Amino acid sequence: MEIFHVYPFFGLLRFGHIIVAVMWMGLLWFFNFVQTPAYAEMEPPARNAAFDKITWRALWWFRWAAAATVVFGLLLLMVGSMSDQIGLYKGDYWMHTASGPTLFLAIVMGVIMFLNVWLVIWPNQQVVIANARTLLAGGEANPEAAGAARAGAMASRQNTVFSITVLAFMVGAGHFWGASGEILRFDVDASKVWLYYIVGFIIIGVLEANALGKISGRGNGGLNVIYETHKNALYTAFGLLVFFYVFGEILLRN
After folding, report:
1. Could you state, in order of their start, the residue ranges of all structural domains in the chain?
2. How far is residue 147's CA from residue 218's CA, in Å, rounded to a whole number?
3. What is the distance between the alpha carbons of residues 28 and 6, in angstroms, rounded to a whole number?
4. Collapsing DSSP states into helix, strand and coil, what is residue 254?
5. Whether 58 contacts 24, CB under 8 Å
């Protein structure tokens, strides 16, 4: 039956990837654009109750949506690279097209975002929520809660910075660079692709190292200015997208 052909299966994987990615990104933006500013205006008892009842539940969907997004993405890559009918994601795609390198950087940022969720944001938010529950029960505040909140917030803001480029390049690999038919061109010089990868890895590495407190610490100065407000994170996110897109147009399309 046609439904068991590789194309419908690939389409279903792509649909699943999109659904869970929408949930993940939507909750990421909710935390950064809605929850954080709102909680800052709330009285401590109300904020602690919100952490207990709202944030706890939202984080469950958030972290598992992140995991599901990565799983569906890996399955897409596996099927796309192994299937002769689809013929995507093979060696030349990553080294001799305009769309391959941009998609690969998006994948790298997406995996880093996933690791931030599970290894930084979730563990630190557990400390914050446990502290909120302790205070609601009349207990003493955990002195480590403030530091945990800051660490989680910086990783979350960095994920916001990455998210715009990730979404644009996940879509762009199949549309932006395909609009003029160039997505199927396999004549991009490998040296240009390597330069794009190297510059991209350096920028991504610096930003992530900073989010982990390795460059500007956990204070408000230095590169940490991009995390201080959701507006700063958005400006940085779109600036990152514009840089990678323009750099790709100059380097990979000519």
Report:
1. 2-252
2. 8
3. 33
4. coil
5. no
pLDDT tens digit sequence for 17-76:
999 999 999 999 999 999 999 999 999 999 999 999 999 999 999 999 999 999 999 999
Which string of b and e fits 38-72 if b means at least 16 CB within 10 Å? ebeeeeeeebbbbbbeebbeebeebbebbebbbeb
Helix (H, G, I), strand (E, B) or coil at 36: helix
Q: For 150-218, what is the HEC assignment? A: HHHHHHHHHHHHHHHHHHHHHHHCCCCCCCCCHHHCCCCCHHHHHHHHHHHHHHHHHHHHHHCCCCCCC
Instruction: Dump pLDDT digits (tens) for 134-193.
Output: 999 999 999 999 999 999 999 999 999 999 999 999 887 655 655 444 445 678 899 999
Q: What's the one-letter identity of residue 38?
A: A
Encoding tokens for residue 23? 């949930």
For residue 85, report the phi and psi dihedrals to the nearest 5 degrees: -70, -40
Measured CA to CA, the distance from residue 24 to residue 27 in angstroms comes to 5
Mean pLDDT estimate for the chain: 90
Compute CA distances 210 → 7, 57, 128, 148, 222, whole Å.
41, 29, 22, 16, 9
Structure confidence at residue 86 as a pLDDT band (50, 70, 90): low
